[in-house]
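A sample copied in:

***
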Amino acid sequence: MFTGPRGEVLNDNNFCKRQWKPVLESVNVPYRKPYTTRSTLISHWLEAGENPVVVAEFTGHDVATLYKHYAGSIRKRATPPDFLSLDPSPPTT
């Protein structure tokens, strides 16, 4: 995501001092470790309805770990469809 002036990979300490802290300060967000964004991303993905299997693949977790550690912070709950009120006839073309 961030590279040095010559395109090289940044070390963690350099990144935090030169990029991370100034960005957080510029938007008045208290300091937090960059790793915190991982939890936020996973929770947002799940809350948005992304398939947990896909999220698990991207993050290197298994689905059980996602539910155990991240799903508790999800505010939006899925609403199952009302199958009794759906029109059973096939769509017309």
Remarks:
- The chain has a mean pLDDT of 80.
- The chain is about 45% helix and 0% strand.
- The helical segments are 12-26, 36-47, 52-59, 63-69.
- The radius of gyration is 20 Å.
